[in-house]
Amino acid sequence: LVLRNALSTTIEQRMRDDIYIYNIKMGEDATNLLQLLNDAVTSELYSSLKGQNKKIAFFIYGLDEAVEKKNQQGRSEALLLLNMMREDFQKVQHPLIIWINKASLILILKEAQDFFSWRTTVFEFDMEHEMETSPLIDFGDTDLVFLTREELEDRWDYYNRLLTEYKEKGIDDAYKTGDWNHQLGMINLLLGYAEGSVKFFEESLMKSREIEDRRGEGTDLGNIGSAYSHLGQVEKAIEYYEQALVISKETGDKRGEGYHLGNLGSAYRHLGQVEKAIEYHEQALVISKETGDRRGEGYHLRNLGSAYSDLGDSEKAIEYFNRALTIGNQIQDPKIINYSKKHLKSLTHSKD
């Protein structure tokens, strides 16, 4: 579900000027796709889009749920309808993109072969790849960094469901919806879907400003910076980190100040300005020690090791990585441990 949403969001963002994405939701109470399409093409929205000469593509969601509804013979009602009405789908004048999981695809192959053979192209997206996030960005105080991919996806479903329920019921609670958007953005970022995370962080930022939560505003700005850093837009990331740093100083948020300084250091290192990066990492390290932030201290030591490695100072790099590894072992942080070990091994071999 997380991957699907990330992909569909990216596609919508890239195509919005040329093609209108018309979303259609199936489910156990909406199993007739052809009827849903007929409802769509007779809607006022569709008429308006046609009047503007807009190109349209239908994105179909929820077939995974719809196939669960069985008739008295134990057959999937949705798949029977798909199969029987295959010829009618040829009358649809717009592309249909059906988002389904592998299990549903197998069911279609078995129970709706006629439909499947109708102008069908299948794209598969692998969810088994190793989760990767930038090792040099500090995500601050969040337990999300310790969760598995499956646990992160479960959390994503949970927060997304809460947001959807509040929206459908017309409940406006800026505190809760701001936090849920923040969590969804963090999960997307940790799963590697940075582009999809930006909209959640921007929504969270809007809510923080609405309730005049300056510290939250700083956190949101920093998170938007991290998203742009993941997207390779480092100069833009720096702009957000600097805004976040100003707010953290104004509000006395020392930990936040440390995170933003560290992320600025990582950004400047990415731009090749290593000496400037070291200055920021050293400032961040001082703050993490002052605040007793052991994890932050480990991250900043690790980042200093990387910076000195870039400068070719292996001795200093090894010193910082060893210090980071000690802290990583003490607090049982696998990211600090694995990153430090990997670079210590590389540096040791290069010396040999």
TrEMBL record:
Query: Could you tell me the superkingdom of the organism this chain comes from?
Result: Archaea
Q: What is this protein called?
A: Tetratricopeptide repeat protein
